[in-house]
Amino acid sequence: MLETISTHWAQILAVISIVMGTVAAIHATMTKEEVRAAIGWVGVIVLSPILGALIYAVAGINLIRRSTLSMQRAGMTAVERHHLAEYDVTGETVERDFGDTFAAMKILGDRVSRCKLTSGNTIDMLETGDEAYAAMLAAIKGAERSILLETYIFDKDVIGVRFADALVDAVRRGVEVRVLIDAVGARYSIPSIVGYLQKGGVPVDVFNGNIIMGLRLPYANLRTHRKILVIDGGVAFTGGMNIRAGFAAEAAGDGVSGDTHFRVTGPIVADLFHTALEDWRFATGEMLAGEPWAVVEPEADPGTGVLARVVPSGPDKSLETNHRMMMGAFSVARDHIRIMSPYFLPDRELISALVTAARRGVAVDILVPGVNNLTLVDHAMTAQFDQLLKDGCRIWRASGHFNHSKLMVVDDTWAYVGSSNLDPRSLRLNFEVDVELFDKGIAEELDARIRAVMQSARPVLLKDLRARPFPRRLLERIIWLGSPYL
Questions:
Q1: Bridge partners, residue 460, by sequence
Q2: Among 2, 49, 172, 424, who pairs with 484 as Cys (CB 3.0-4.6 Å)?
Q3: Are both 280 and 389 inside the same structural domain?
């Protein structure tokens, strides 16, 4: 046997290469939805025998991972939801208060999101980490029945330990507590906060992996990027803020990073709760039910308050929901679109929608950090800027320290906030949760926040981009080629 292998190893290797390449090429052809992606992967597979097929198996097989994960999560959406029909908002109400333009957004949301547009909500913006963490900790310390927390990063630093201690104290006084941390996000601290929580008696788990043995490779590229905290079924916190010291001035000092978070009450709390509940049940198999987990009745009267909708998205039945909502918003804009995003890497469809809006006369302003915490992402972002600038969009580099906020406002009427970045990972690979808002007051407040940062920001000019040295521009384009996996 060994003699045969040693004599005919070249022929055996050729057969293995042909079989692996054929299987991989057929899979790419049959499963990729974009022709350029299919052609690209087939080229890699054919031009790099064996190695190309292995690379495809690791980096190009997200559709199978996504499909498998979707089947495993299929039963999650059958969880009974607490829903009060009298808080539902009709199309006529939206058209009356905001015009037929935004009535179209209501129709779109109804068709792509599994959550209703509801009235009776309150939304309070928390503009700094210190403000957000103080409000969240106060809510945890005041919890009487239940606490459900889902987050991407939960660092074991001064802020993370403060949260962990508050959660441990809640368990000791009889509150039902559950904490879900993404398996990748849990690794931002070594050792992880998970052991600290477990030692304190807090039921905690990680999403799509484990801490000791490593990530579960079939799902390693699929992460929960959601940030949800629900207290006693009546108040919730959501937005872009992870739990880490870098966003608290008391811990980071002058080097503090910026972010924006939100405290919410009303019917959307039930939808945020059930979004996190589904993820907890998927990760652990435990169904959270009974009196401790009951969602409370909203205090506001139906038809009052902020009109809002929770928009979960991710690689399951909610695939690309956030992408579709953004496409719709860019398409209906008439006056202005303002976007604040730390990682701005939109796909060709979103770029076309923004460019088309600019050509229609819509003022499109995109605010990104002047200093980014992810250098590779920043290079890839810069490589795309010319596609927007040459057709009338405006891009601004914020001054000061890194800002992680994800805010979007259209015509001072419609707003979209939450955990989603405008990059391939958030739009296709991560589990995200956002909130759609129909409210002129909130939209104007968010718009003012963006414009305040723009006042000291530096405009990115096309002539300056093109005047930079060729080696730098080439490097950015090379990094941009790998942007779907940054």
A1: 395
A2: 424
A3: no
Tell me the Ramachandran region of residue 123: left when phi exceeds 0, alpha when psi lies from -120 to 50, beta otherwise. beta
Beta-strand (E) ranges in 194-326? 204-207, 228-231, 235-239, 261-265, 306-313
Residue where a domain terminates, one of 36, 60, 84: 60
The low-confidence residues of the chain, meaning pLDDT below 70, are 1-12, 21, 24-25, 27-42, 44, 47, 52-83, 209-221, 485-486
CA 452 to chain centre: 24
Q: How far apart are CA 148 and CA 177, in angstroms?
A: 6
**Sign of the C-alpha dihedral computed for residues 321, 327, 331 and 337 taken in this order:** positive
CATH of the domain at 261: 3.30.870.10
pLDDT for the residue 79: 45
Angle at 279 between CA 277 and CA 281, to 5 degrees: 70
pLDDT at 384: 93
pLDDT of residue 80: 46
DSSP assignment of 56-86 equals HHHHS-HHHHHHHHHHHHGGGGGS-----GG
